[in-house]
Amino acid sequence: MEIKQLLYFKTIVDHGSISSAAKALNMTQPPLSYQIKQLEQELNTTLFTRGSKTISLTPSGIALYQKSEIILNMTSETIKEITTLKDTPLLRIGITPTTLPVLLPYLTKLKEEYPNIHYSIYDGNTFKLTSLLFENVIDIAAIRSPANMNNLNYINIRNEHMILVSSEPFPTNSTTIKDIKKNRLIIYRRYYELINQTFIKYNLQLNPYCECDDARTAIDLVHNGFGQAIFPNSLRSLCKDLYIQDIEEDNLNTSILLVTSKNKPINDICEKLINIIKE
C-alpha cells in the first residue's frame, strides 16, 4: 500500500466521486480507478459500493478512510520536519475548544522566549487528542478532566468551577444545584456525567432539555432562548451579552491538564512549555 494510493482514496471520498477527484488531482479517471482497484486487491477487500452515483463506503472503506487521514497527516508532518523546518523546532500540540483560552498565555510566553519555534496545532475533543498522542501524531495536549489518564503523564494547569449561563437575568445572587433543577438545561455532553453525579448527590434527577457536543453550540442555543447552560468558568469570555452566575457546588469542578504519553520521552520543546506553566 503506497502513500499516493491513500491520497487518491481519501480525495475520492472527500470530493464525492472519481471524476471530481481526478480533476482535483489533475489526472484522468482510468489511472485513478486503476490505483483504487490495485489498493482493493492488495487489501483483499472492497472499499466502495459499486453501482451508485454517489460515493458509498463499505465498512472496510470507512475504517481505511479514518486511518488514511492519520497516516497522511503524519506523512505531511514528517516531510515538514525533515525538509522544510530542518533545524527549526516544531511543537505538535493538541487543544480542545475550551482549553485554548487558558493555554494561550503560556503559548504566547513560549513564542516570546523561543521565537524560532514553529507550531502544528490539532483541534479535537479529549478522546481524539489522547488517541493522537498514542499514535505519535502530536507530542503534547491540553485536555480537561474527567479523562482516562492511563499511560499519560500530566501536570494540572488550572482547576475551574462551573458557571450557569442564561439569556435573562437571574432572580437571585447565587445558584445552587436545587435551583438549577428547576430550569430548562442545555448540557454540553462532555460534562454530562460530572453534572449527573452532582445531581445524584442531592437525590435529584438530571433531565436535560437539550444536549450537544460543542460549547459554542450550547452558547448559541442560550442566546436564542432554549434554556440555561452549564460551562467551565474559562468560557465566560465567550458568553457575550449573556448573564452568568457561579454555581455554589464544590464537587462541580473540572481541571485543565497538560498531558504527554508515558510511552514516549518528552522532547525539549514540550519541556520548555511545561516549565513555563510550572513557573
Write down the oligomeric state.
single chain
End-to-end C-alpha gap? 47 Å
The CATH topology of the largest domain: D-Maltodextrin-Binding Protein, domain 2
The CATH homologous superfamily name of the largest domain equals Periplasmic binding protein-like II
Secondary structure: helix percent: 40-55%
Q: Mind describing the biggest β-sheet?
A: 9 strands, mixed
Q: Return the CATH architecture of the largest domain.
A: 3-Layer(aba) Sandwich
- Poorly predicted segments: none
Q: Assign an overall shape.
A: globular
* Total domain count: 3
Rg, Å, rounded = 23 Å
Task: List the total number of helices.
Answer: 10
As a percent range, the share of strand residues is 15-25%
User: CATH top level of the largest domain?
Assistant: Alpha Beta
Tell me the total number of β-strands.
Answer: 9
Q: Could you characterize what this model shows?
A:
By secondary structure, the chain is α/β, with parallel strands linked by helices. The protein has 3 domains: 80 residues, Winged helix-like DNA-binding domain superfamily/Winged helix DNA-binding domain (Arc Repressor Mutant, subunit A); 93 residues, D-Maltodextrin-Binding Protein, domain 2 (3-Layer(aba) Sandwich), CATH 3.40.190.10; 94 residues, D-Maltodextrin-Binding Protein, domain 2, CATH 3.40.190. It is 43% helix and 20% strand. It contains 10 helices and 9 strands. Strands 1, 2, 3, 4, 5, 6, 7, 8 and 9 form a 9-stranded mixed beta sheet that branches. Helix 8 links the parallel strand 5 and strand 6. Helix 1 packs across helix 4.
